[in-house]
C-alpha cells in the first residue's frame, strides 16, 4: 500500500511534464514543414550582429554594415560595380582642372519614393546640409571639402573643391547619400529623425520594417525605380549567430551570409558559391618610435627580420590569411609596390643590425652597457595568439619580451600616451590610398603617428591632391618604399574573409569596397539587374 | 523597517559604484562615459554640452549630484553606438530576458522542489539514486555548453527547433501562431537554462528534506494516521522549502549573468546579448545601464523573497 501511495505525487509531476511534452510534440508537428524554399524573389541575408541602426544616413551605426543597409534606399552621385565607377544619380561627370570643380550631369527620370522628382536642388541641399550636420562617413570640411555647390540647371551641378582632392569620386561623390530637400529642410536634429519620412530615398528598395531588438530588416522593391523594377522583390536581413550561418544556409532559411574560413570547402561541396573579399584589413605590430631603443630605424628593421610572417599566418591564423607586406598596401591591391623593402625572415640580419647598434649576445640574450634588452608588448585578448608568436620569435633571436594582454581601453590609453614598446592592433580600409594619411601621420588611435619624416609627410599630402592617376600611383609607390624603410609599424597579416551564397543573386565584391571602402559583397546593383 | 533600510543602503552602494567605475577608468572620462562611438560623433559643441550635462568640470560630489538628478528623471544616459537613450535600448531587450529567465527560474525551482521532496522522502531508493545521478550530471555542464549540445542536436542535425533568435522574422504571424512561434524559439534556450539550474534547488530540497524527516513532528504526523502525501508535502515539504526560497532570490542574479552565454549561443535578443554587443562595441553607457537594471532587479527579487518568508514560515513574523 505505501508503495502505491508514494507514486501519487510522482504522477503529479508527470501531470506537469506530460502537457509540456505534448506542447513540444505539437510544436514539432506545426513546424515540421519549416525550411521550405522561400519565394524565388525573396532574398534573406544573415548577419551575426543584426542591428545596425535605422537605415537613414544619420541614424545607421557608423560602421560598414550600417551604411550598406542604408545604401539600398539612398543613392549617391556615382557608384561602383566590381571593376569601375558607374553612373548612379549622375549619368555623366567630369573634372574641370582650371576651376578645380567637378561637373555632374544628373538623370532627369529619378523620383523619390514619395513620388517627388529628384533635381539638382536636392544635391545642392545635401552638400550644404552635410556641411552643417557632419556625417561620420563623409567629411565636406577640410581637404576633402566642397567649397561651393552650384546648380547650372535643373539637372547639372558643379561642385567646387576646397583643394584638388584625388579620391573625391571615391570618398565623396561615391559615398555621400543624397537626401530629399523637401523632407530634410525641416529636420534640425537628423540623429533623432527616425520616422517613415527619414527613409525616403531614390534607391531600388524601400524599408518595410526594421526591428532593433531582433536585428531584422525588411526591404521591398521600389516599383518606379529608374533602372526598372528590381529583380528581387524582397530583401530580408536576419540575425543569426556566426556559428549557425553555415547550418542556416544548408537548411535553406537564408540565401547568403559570411562564413568562417574553416567551413569554406564544406560549403563549396554542398553547392554554395564562395566569394572572397580582396584584402582590406591588416593586423599590425606598432613600434614605439618615440622611445629608445625603438626610435632607431635600424633597430626597428632588426625586429622585422626576426619575425617570420609566413609562419605567423600558418600558426596563428591556421593559414587563412596572407602574410603582411611592410609597405602596408596588400600585394593584391592595384596600388601595391613590389619594390618596397620586404624584410624576408632572416635572424642573422637581426643579429648583424643589433651588433651594429652596440648590442652583444650574452647567454642567448642581447645586452648593451650591461643592461639586458627587454621590450614590453601589449595587445588585447583578440591578438593573444599573435602576441605570443611575436614574443616567441623575438626571444629566439635574443630579445626578451614581456607580453601582457590588456583590456582594450587600457591598451588604447597606453598607446595614446606612448607608454609601451610594441603593441598589436588592426584596422581596415586598405583600398584607397587616402587611408595612408589617416593611419601613418594623423593622430587617431589606429595611426602610427609617425610625422618626423618630412619627405614622407609631403608625399602623403601630395598624393591626395594629385589628380593625375598615373602620377598619383607613383607617389603612392614612393610612400610605401619610405614607410617600409622607416617601419613605424609592421603589417603582420591580412585575414581571409568569405561569403557563401546560394547563387540565386550574383553577389560580388565592389571595386575598392562599397562607397568609401566597405568590404561587404552586398552591392545594391546585384539585386537590380 | 530595518529590512527596508538595508535595501536602501544596498541600492545607494550600487548607484555609487555605477557612478564611480567609469570615472575611475584610465583615460578620458568622457570617452568612458559615452564609449568609443562618441569620439566619432563628437563636435566641440556636443563635448561642451556633455561636460555640462554631467558636470564633468565640477568636483566629484557635484558630479554625483548631477548623476542622481538625471537618474531620477529616468535618464540612464545616451548610447552613441545605438543613437538612442540607454533606457529605451535596455527596455526593448528586458521583456525577452524576463521571459527566458523568469520561466527558467520558475520551472527549475518548482521541478527542483518536487523532485527534491520525492528524492529525500525515500533517500537511498532506486528512484532517489537515479534522480541524483541524472540531475547532477546534467547540472554539471555549463549552461552554454548544454545550449550548444541542444542546438547542434535539435537545431542543426534534426532541424526541429530554430537556429537563432526569438521569433521568425517576417513570417507574417499573429495571434496563436505568433505565441507558438515565440515558444518554439524559446524552447531550446529555456531547456538549457532550466536543466542547468534545476540541480541546485533539487539538492537543497533533498538535503533539507532528509534533515526535516528526522524531526519528531514528522513521527507525530505519521502517528496521527495522515496520508503519506500529506506528511510529505504539508509537513516535511513545506518546512524544507525555506532555504530553497532564499536561494531562489540569489539565484536570479546568477541566472541573469548566466543567461549572457545562453543568449549568445541562441542569438536571443535579451539583456545578456545586449551586454555582449555593448562589450564588443565598448558601449559603456549601455553596460552601466544593464548593470544598474540587473542589480536593481536582484534587489527587488530578494525583497519579494523576504516578504514571502513570513507567508511560508509564520515564525519569521514573530521574530521581528
Biggest sheet architecture of chain B: 2 strands, antiparallel
SS strand fraction of chain A:
15-25%
- Secondary-structure class of chain A: alpha+beta
End-to-end distance of chain A, in Å?
Answer: 79 Å
SS strand fraction of chain B: under 5%
Gross geometry of chain A = globular
Largest interface, Cβ cutoff 8 Å: A-B, 55 and 54 residues
Number of helices of chain B: 14
Share of helical residues of chain B: over 70%
- Neighbour order of strands in the largest sheet of chain B: 1-2
How many DSSP H or I helices of chain A? 16
User: Unreliable segments of chain A (pLDDT under 50, ≥5 consecutive)?
Assistant: 1-8, 24-39
Tally of extended strands of chain B? Answer: 2
Oligomer class: heterodimer
Could you give the order of strands across the largest sheet of chain A? 14-21-13-20-18-19
Poorly predicted ranges of chain B: none
By DSSP, the count of extended strands of chain A is: 22
Mean pLDDT, all residues of chain B: 81
Distance between the termini of chain B: 10 Å
Amino acid at each position: 500500500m505505501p508503495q502505491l501511495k508514494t507514486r501519487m505525487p510522482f504522477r503529479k509531476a508527470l501531470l506537469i511534464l506530460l502537457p509540456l511534452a505534448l506542447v513540444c510534440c505539437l510544436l514539432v508537428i506545426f513546424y515540421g514543414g519549416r525550411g521550405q524554399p522561400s519565394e524565388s524573389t525573396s532574398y534573406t541575408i544573415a548577419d551575426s550582429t543584426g542591428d545596425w541602426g535605422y537605415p537613414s544616413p544619420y541614424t545607421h551605426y557608423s560602421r560598414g554594415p550600417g551604411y550598406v543597409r542604408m545604401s539600398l534606399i539612398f543613392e549617391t552621385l556615382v557608384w561602383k560595380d566590381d571593376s569601375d565607377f558607374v553612373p548612379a544619380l549622375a549619368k555623366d561627370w567630369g573634372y574641370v582642372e582650371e576651376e578645380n570643380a567637378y561637373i555632374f550631369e544628373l538623370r532627369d527620370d529619378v523620383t523619390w519614393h514619395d513620388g517627388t522628382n529628384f533635381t539638382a536642388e536636392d544635391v545642392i541641399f545635401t552638400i550644404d546640409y552635410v556641411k552643417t550636420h557632419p556625417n561620420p562617413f563623409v567629411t565636406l570640411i577640410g581637404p576633402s571639402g566642397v567649397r561651393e555647390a552650384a546648380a547650372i540647371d535643373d539637372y547639372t551641378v558643379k561642385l567646387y573643391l576646397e583643394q584638388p582632392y584625388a579620391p573625391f569620386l571615391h570618398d565623396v561623390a561615391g559615398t555621400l547619400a543624397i537626401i530629399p530637400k523637401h523632407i530634410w529642410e525641416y529636420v534640425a536634429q537628423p540623429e533623432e529623425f527616425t520616422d517613415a519620412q527619414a527613409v525616403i530615398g531614390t534607391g531600388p528598395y524601400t524599408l518595410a520594417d526594421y526591428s532593433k531588438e531582433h536585428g531584422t530588416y525588411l526591404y521591398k522593391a521600389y516599383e518606379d525605380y529608374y533602372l526598372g523594377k528590381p529583380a528581387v522583390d524582397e530583401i530580408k536581413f536576419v540575425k543569426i549567430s556566426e556559428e549557425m550561418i553555415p547550418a542556416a544556409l544548408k537548411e535553406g532559411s537564408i540565401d547568403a551570409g559570411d562564413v568562417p574560413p574553416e567551413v569554406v570547402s564544406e560549403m563549396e561541396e554542398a553547392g554554395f558559391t564562395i566569394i572572397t573579399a580582396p584584402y582590406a584589413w591588416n593586423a599590425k605590430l606598432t613600434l614605439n618610435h618615440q622611445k629608445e631603443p625603438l626610435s632607431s630605424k635600424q633597430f626597428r628593421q632588426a625586429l622585422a627580420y626576426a619575425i617570420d610572417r609566413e609562419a605567423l599566418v600558418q600558426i596563428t591564423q591556421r593559414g587563412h590569411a596572407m602574410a603582411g607586406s611592410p609597405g602596408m598596401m596588400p600585394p593584391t591591391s592595384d596600388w601595391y609596390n613590389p619594390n618596397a623593402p620586404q624584410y624576408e625572415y632572416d635572424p642573422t640580419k637581426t643579429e648583424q643590425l643589433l651588433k651594429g647598434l652596440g648590442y652583444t649576445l650574452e647567454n642567448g640574450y642581447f645586452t648593451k652597457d650591461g643592461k639586458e634588452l627587454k621590450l614590453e608588448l601589449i595587445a588585447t585578448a583578440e591578438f593573444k595568439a599573435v602576441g605570443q608568436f611575436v614574443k616567441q620569435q623575438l626571444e629566439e633571436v635574443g630579445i626578451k619580451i614581456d607580453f601582457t594582454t590588456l583590456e582594450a581601453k587600457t591598451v588604447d590609453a597606453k598607446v595614446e600616451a606612448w607608454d609601451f614598446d610594441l603593441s598589436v592592433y588592426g584596422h581596415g580600409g586598405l583600398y584607397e590610398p587616402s587611408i595612408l594619411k589617416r593611419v601613418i601621420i594623423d593622430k587617431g588611435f589606429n595611426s602610427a603617428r609617425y610625422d618626423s619624416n618630412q619627405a614622407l609627410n609631403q608625399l602623403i599630402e601630395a598624393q591626395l591632391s594629385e589628380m593625375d592617376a598615373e602620377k598619383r600611383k607613383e607617389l603612392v609607390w614612393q610612400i610605401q618604399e619610405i614607410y617600409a624603410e622607416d617601419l613605424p609599424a609592421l603589417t603582420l597579416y591580412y585575414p581571409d574573409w568569405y561569403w557563401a551564397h546560394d547563387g540565386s543573386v550574383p553577389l560580388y565584391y565592389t571595386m575598392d569596397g562599397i562607397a568609401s571602402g566597405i568590404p561587404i559583397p552586398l552591392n545594391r546593383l546585384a539585386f537590380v539587374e | 523597517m530595518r529590512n527596508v533600510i538595508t535595501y536602501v543602503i544596498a541600492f545607494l552602494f550600487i548607484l555609487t559604484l555605477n557612478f564611480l567605475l567609469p570615472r575611475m577608468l584610465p583615460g578620458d572620462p568622457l570617452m568612458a562615459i559615452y564609449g568609443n562611438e562618441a569620439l566619432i560623433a563628437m563636435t566641440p559643441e556636443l563635448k561642451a554640452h556633455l561636460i555640462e550635462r554631467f558636470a564633468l568640470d565640477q568636483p566629484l560630489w557635484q558630479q554625483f549630484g548631477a548623476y542622481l538628478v538625471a537618474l531620477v528623471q529616468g535618464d540612464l544616459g545616451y548610447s552613441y553606438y545605438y543613437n538612442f537613450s540607454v533606457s529605451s535600448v535596455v527596455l526593448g531587450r528586458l521583456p525577452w530576458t524576463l521571459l527566458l529567465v523568469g520561466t527558467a527560474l520558475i520551472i527549475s525551482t518548482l521541478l527542483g522542489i518536487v523532485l527534491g521532496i520525492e528524492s529525500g522522502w525515500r533517500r537511498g531508493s532506486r528512484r532517489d539514486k537515479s534522480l541524483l545521478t541524472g540531475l547532477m550530471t546534467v547540472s554539471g555542464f555549463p549552461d552554454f555548453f548544454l545550449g550548444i549540445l541542444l542546438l547542434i542536436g535539435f537545431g542543426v542535425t534534426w532541424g526541429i527547433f530554430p537556429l537563432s533568435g526569438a521569433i521568425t522574422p517576417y513570417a507574417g504571424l499573429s495571434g496563436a501562431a505568433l505565441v507558438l512561434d515565440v515558444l518554439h524559439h524559446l524552447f531550446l534556450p529555456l531547456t538549457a537554462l532550466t536543466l542547468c539550474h534545476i540541480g541546485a534547488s533539487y539538492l537543497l530540497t533533498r538535503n533539507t528534506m532528509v534533515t526535516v524527516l528526522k524531526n519528531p513532528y514528522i513521527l507525530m504526523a505519521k502517528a496521527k494516521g495522515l496520508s503519506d502525501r500529506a506528511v510529505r508535502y504539508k509537513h516535511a515539504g513545506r518546512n524544507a522549502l525555506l532555504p530553497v526560497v532564499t536561494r531562489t532570490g540569489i539565484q536570479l542574479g546568477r541566472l541573469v549573468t548566466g543567461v549572457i552565454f545562453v543568449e549568445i549561443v541562441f542569438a536571443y535578443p535579451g539583456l545578456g546579448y545586449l551586454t555582449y554587443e555593448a562589450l564588443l562595441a565598448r558601449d559603456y553607457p549601455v553596460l552601466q545601464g544593464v548593470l544598474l537594471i540587473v542589480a536593481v532587479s536582484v534587489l527587488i527579487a530578494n525583497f519579494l523573497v523576504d516578504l514571502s518568508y513570513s507567508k511560508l514560515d509564520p515564525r519569521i513574523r514573530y521574530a521581528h
